Amino acid sequence: MSEDSTPKKALAAVKGTHDILPGEVELWQKVEAEVSALFGRYGYRELRAPVIEPTELFEKGTGRTTDIVQKEMYTFTDKGGRSITLRPEYTPSVARAIVEHRLDLLGTPMRYYYIGPMFRYDKPQKGRYRQFHQIDAEVFGEKDPAVDAEIIEMADTMLRILGVTGTETLVNSVGCKTCRPAYARALRTQAEKVRDGLCEDCRRKIETNPLRIFDCKVAACRELAASFPAIPEFLCSECRDHFAGVRKMLDLSGVACRFEPALVRGLDYYTKTAFEVVQTGAGQQNAVLGGGRYDDMMKDFGGPDICGIGFACGVERLIALLTLTPEPRRFVYIVHAGDAAKAKAVELARRFRAAGVETLLEFAGRGFKSQFGRASKLGASWVLIIGEDELARGEFLLKDMATGSQTSGTPDALIKMLL
Ligand code: HAM
Predict the structure, then answer these.
(1) Ligand 1 contacts CB of residue 175 (under 6 A)
(2) Neighbouring-strand partners of residue 359
(3) Please, which residues have CB within 8 angstroms of residue 399's CB and are 6 or more apart in sequence?
């Protein structure tokens, strides 16, 4: 490696990861605040789990045949010889936390949410990153189809209050352990007939999980899959009734949804309801959020038999759809010259901040003009001037940078004016 390439590499973010800089982060904060408040109104409480988990949690939870577990996990052995994974998704962590802390004993249904980073070693491209963020919501212990409809309605409301347009909500039922095997057999039979036309990945899926063929992005596979048997004909009566209930409740809640029998989702744990919100007309990375019911996960972990349903929304994909602009920051910039003025500036900054006014000042000892230039470059709303006259009078000049108007007053009077 050449001498000059080393620092360059060390000073660039890891491929597929990105910084969220001031200027962008305000929008993230606004989204996080709006979403937390909305989910709170539906009775969700925040549950923060560690970023690292035992690898086995995802092998068991997310599923061994998924792309996530087979190809995309950031897994390493720690110094104690344990296999550790940076979480690729959040759902298994919530299920683990419930079992570990016996949160089920607090009574059901349990509603939890979280907003934070996930990690998948995937090919980075627009809308697909190696560190990305999810808004995740999960409900446990509620079998009624009304909760499926409620969580889809909550996801829809989230998008609406953030001003997202141009999306479509797709729903399906992927059946359960009782009815899916017969469907998988029918798919296998059909897929075998067109094996040669399928991509290598889909040929593998014929054995491992034929439903996943519907998820393939290759045009030829999609065309062939369009003629495969559809799941509704195979649903057992329990799944059929449940799905009819979900659709009825969705109609009542007024959420516009399209029934999509080819929607299968890329994770192993789903039972019954599956749903996605996709950006209409977008390219391959068009799912803004996805989720579904997973009634067996907790039991399969060896925990209590508690059903679950949830969704996760990709924050980067969501932010890309937003036209919202956060309120601009409004702050005072204090210009001062000389030691006595500097001491007064520090004192006033403390008083202004304590009163709730954002206040900036710098200590480089520059002249008034250059401090004014800096204030205007930073976008200060007001400049507070501390010169000799002001110090002597105990009254200070506040200039409104937008209108140019100036007001003189005691610190208390100025604070009152600014609040
Ligand atoms: P998922 O479909 O794997 O589901 O991911 C949910 C969302 O995360 C996607 O719709 C997408 O917006 C975003 N996403 C996924 N991978 C990436 C990536 N590499 N870069 C950027 N965004 C990405 C789950 O993760 C399930 N845990 C959802 C769930 C919760 N099901 C039940 N409860």
Answers:
(1) no
(2) 332
(3) 382, 383, 384, 385, 405, 406
**CA trace torsion 67, 149, 278, 24 (10° rounding):** -90
What is the 8-class DSSP label of residue 235? -
Q: What is the mean pLDDT of each run of 10 residues along the chain (419 residues)?
A: 56 95 94 98 98 97 91 97 98 96 90 98 94 98 97 98 95 95 93 93 90 89 91 95 97 95 88 96 79 95 93 97 88 94 95 97 88 94 93 93 95 93
**Counting atoms of ligand 1 from 1, which one is nearest the CA of 318?**
12
For a mutational test of ligand 1's pocket, the pick from 47, 53, 317, 321, i.e. the residue with the most ligand atoms closer than 8 A to its C-beta, is: 317
Dihedral (CA of 226, 202, 291, 306) sign: positive
| Å from CA of 139 to ligand 1 middle | 17
CA 205 to chain centre: 29
**Token match 């204030």: residue?**
375
- Give the ligand 1 atom nearest the CA of 127: 21
- Give the whole-angstrom CA distance, residue 16 versus residue 120: 9
Q: How many residues comprise the chain?
A: 419
- The residue among 57, 91, 76, 154 whose CA lies nearest residue 121 is 76
Q: How many angstroms separate the alpha carbon of residue 366 from the centre of ligand 1?
A: 51
Chain CA centroid to CA 128, Å = 13
Which strands, in side-by-side order, build the sheet including 52-54?
52-54, 83-86, 74-77
Distance 133 CA to ligand 1 centre (A): 9
